[in-house]
């Protein structure tokens, strides 16, 4: 997945004739009715597979793969009922946030419950990462992440699933799954109490097991889709934009080039024949947004903006999520290969699952000309900045192993330091192989050696890679991934003829606040920037007189725009229009003596102040032939 904190098809055949599917007894048959929303909840019914045990436990997941955080989906269930053939209730005992124990289970004929969505829930518990969440917005949008709708019986995760979705006739389901049937009339559905209705249709989906079910989200809304063909693969884009600011055709045009480049990066062919990009845009203010990968799809939750405002971000996100097909979806340890939804175990290899994926997502763009080499160096520099927010004394393998608990606040470092581990490893491999073998080659070899259904042993990966490559790579892992030595930027970048300058001082105008001074807080459910510390503030910030806790609401008399994709442009404009001799003003909310928030104006004369720029990367114009050759192998196709 990828998280951004602020700051910083195919049409299934239209089957009007009723081919009722053979309903094997050894399947779960689920029904969800999107046309009846009551109190923001949906009705779910399950006809279970055959159960011979006298007692059985029904679970919803505590966690799903890819999020590296606890979700506790069982919270969203209410009015849970287990019924026998005659409709009598069987005894049920709730035995945890996510589990129900059913007695006389051999008599079980039906389970029913109501489910609430995570997007606007007021229930206590962990915040669910949006793209792993569920949405119930009557007549507008439904996001079916199965982990938040459908459960499984303990010990019966490998049994096939069928789910039937009753939908309004004008809704379409975007998913990477191939529907068994779409538009089945209601009167043939094998569930009781669902009256025939011309305005409703049923779509039927199947999954081989619970893992595939959870790996296959579906988004329902009025159709806004586009299809692009990339080599062997058909790629579906489904979009929900509440005010229509952006549409699927625009997104398709934007990410087509990225996918073409990714195809080349992966050796000329995409590793899937079909894939769905599912985009949900929100017009509400957001604190964070992101995307989650699946084997045949990825789901995006992003603030609504025009295609011009978010083009690069869309490409970066799409490239990252699509590359997850390589890892962890194809290359993963047993902890992921045999995922335990209710007692999850963590792997130590987030440096690879998220770090290398993020590294590839920008490396592919420079290699195939979607961004310039200078822009690419800027991307790397920003990652170096990003690393500063996290604990540099923490071994990456430990961050990974304990990311659910003690190091949860360090997780986002996987996108910054993780990607830079990828950079250093790529350059080290290229140096050792005379430019012939890079990180991309290694991952392609690992995916041949392992694969979707063949996991590696978590403790053996470093030794395995060392055996496949060079002893020096074993040293690299010991020092920089299992160890905490600072990454060797100066050395590895020099091999590619790039000069690395840790810090450079200069004088210029400043808006007084920067990374480290500010963070995001919520006020009346809207996000605002506030002063988190004045310790490292520059002379301009000091002259303005910011105090810790100040919430910034105005700048030069203008109300700050909502934090979102256009916020950076606003700040840039303010910065670019600064002139010597004029004044810079801020409006902040500050607590007065009585503890009440009052607006205070801060004002200072604009002068050039001492500033420093960190992490400067520059191409060395006098690079040797050897350096240039390594640079080319790194940045050219
Ligand atoms: Zn990711």
Describe this structure in a few short sentences.
Helices cover 26% and strands 28% of the residues. The chain contains 15 helices and 29 strands.
List keywords for this structure.
26% helix; single chain; alpha+beta; 29 strands; 637 residues; binds zinc ion; 15 helices; 7-stranded mixed beta sheet; 6-stranded mixed beta sheet
Oligomer: single chain
DSSP strand count: 29
The level of helicity is 25-40%
Q: If strands are numbered along the chain, what order do they take across the biggest sheet?
A: 5-8-3-2-12-15-14
Unreliable segments of 5+ consecutive residues: 8-24
The residue-averaged pLDDT reads: 92
By helix and strand content, what is the structural category?
alpha+beta
Alpha-carbon distance between the two ends:
26 Å
Q: What spatial form do the alpha-carbon principal axes imply?
A: globular
State Rg.
27 Å
Largest sheet: 7 strands, mixed
| Percent of sequence in beta strands | 25-35%
| Small molecules held by this entry | zinc ion
| H/I helix tally | 15
């Amino acid at each position: 997945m990828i998280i951004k904190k602020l700051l910083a098809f195919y049409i299934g055949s239209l089957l009007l004739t009723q081919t009722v599917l053979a309903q094997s007894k050894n399947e779960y048959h689920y029904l969800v009715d999107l046309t009846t929303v009551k109190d923001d909840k949906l009705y779910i019914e399950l006809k279970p597979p055959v159960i011979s045990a006298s007692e059985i436990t029904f679970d919803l997941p505590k966690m799903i793969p890819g999020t590296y955080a606890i979700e506790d989906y069982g919270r969203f269930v209410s009015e849970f009922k287990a019924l026998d053939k005659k409709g009598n209730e069987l005894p049920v005992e709730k035995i945890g946030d996510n589990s129900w124990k059913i007695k006389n289970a051999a008599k079980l004929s039906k389970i029913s419950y109501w489910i609430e969505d995570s997007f606007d829930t007021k229930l206590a518990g962990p915040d669910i990462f949006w793209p792993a969440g569920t949405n119930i917005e009557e007549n507008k949008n439904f996001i079916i992440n199965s982990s938040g709708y459908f459960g499984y019986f303990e010990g019966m995760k490998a049994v096939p699933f069928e789910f039937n979705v009753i939908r309004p006739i004008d809704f379409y389901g975007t998913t990477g799954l191939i529907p068994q049937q779409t538009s089945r009339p209601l009167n043939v559905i094998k569930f009781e109490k669902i009256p025939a209705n011309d305005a409703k249709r049923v779509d039927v989906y199947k999954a081989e097991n619970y893992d595939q079910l959870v790996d296959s989200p579906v988004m329902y809304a009025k159709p806004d889709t586009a299809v692009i063909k990339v080599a062997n693969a058909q790629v579906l884009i489904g979009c929900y934009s509440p005010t229509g600011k952006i549409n699927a055709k625009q997104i398709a045009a934007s990410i087509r080039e990225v996918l073409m480049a990714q195809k080349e990066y992966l050796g000329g062919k995409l590793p899937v024949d079909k894939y769905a990009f599912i985009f949900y845009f929100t017009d509400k203010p957001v604190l964070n947004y992101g995307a989650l990968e699946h084997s045949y799809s990825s789901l995006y939750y992003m603030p609504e903006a025009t295609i011009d405002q978010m083009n690069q971000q869309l490409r970066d996100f799409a490239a990252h999520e699509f590359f997850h097909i390589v890892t962890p979806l194809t290359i993963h340890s047993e902890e992921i290969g045999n995922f335990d939804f209710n007692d999850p175990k963590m792997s130590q290899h987030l440096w690879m699952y998220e770090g290398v994926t993020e590294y590839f997502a920008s490396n592919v763009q420079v290699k195939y000309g979607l961004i310039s080499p200078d822009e690419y160096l800027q991307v790397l520099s920003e990652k170096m900045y990003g690393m500063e927010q996290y604990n540099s004394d923490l071994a990456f393998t430990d961050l990974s192993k304990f990311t659910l608990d003690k190091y949860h606040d360090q997780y986002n470092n996987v996108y910054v330091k993780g990607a830079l581990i990828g950079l250093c490893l790529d350059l080290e491999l290229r140096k050792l192989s005379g430019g012939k073998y890079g990180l991309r080659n290694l991952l392609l070899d690992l995916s041949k050696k392992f694969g979707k259904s063949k996991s590696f042993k978590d403790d053996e990966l470093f030794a395995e890679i060392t055996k496949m490559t060079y002893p020096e790579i074993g040293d690299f892992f010991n020092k920089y991934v299992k160890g905490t030595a600072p990454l060797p930027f100066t050395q590895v970048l020099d091999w590619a003829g790039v000069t690395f300058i840790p810090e450079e001082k200069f004088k210029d105008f400043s808006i007084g606040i920067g990374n480290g001074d500010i963070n995001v807080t919520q006020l009346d459910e809207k996000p605002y920037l506030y002063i988190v510390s004045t310790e490292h503030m520059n002379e301009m910030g000091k002259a303005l007189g910011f105090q810790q806790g100040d919430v910034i609401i105005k700048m030069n008399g203008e109300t700050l725009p909502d934090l979102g994709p256009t916020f950076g442009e606003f700040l840039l404009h303010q910065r670019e229009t600064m002139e010597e001799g004029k004044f810079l003003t801020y409006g902040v909310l500050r607590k007065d003596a009585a503890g009440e928030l009052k607006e205070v104006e801060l004002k200072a004369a604009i002068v050039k102040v001492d500033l420093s720029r960190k992490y400067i990367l520059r191409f060395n114009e006098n690079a040797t032939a050897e350096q240039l050759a390594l640079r080319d192998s790194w940045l050219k196709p």
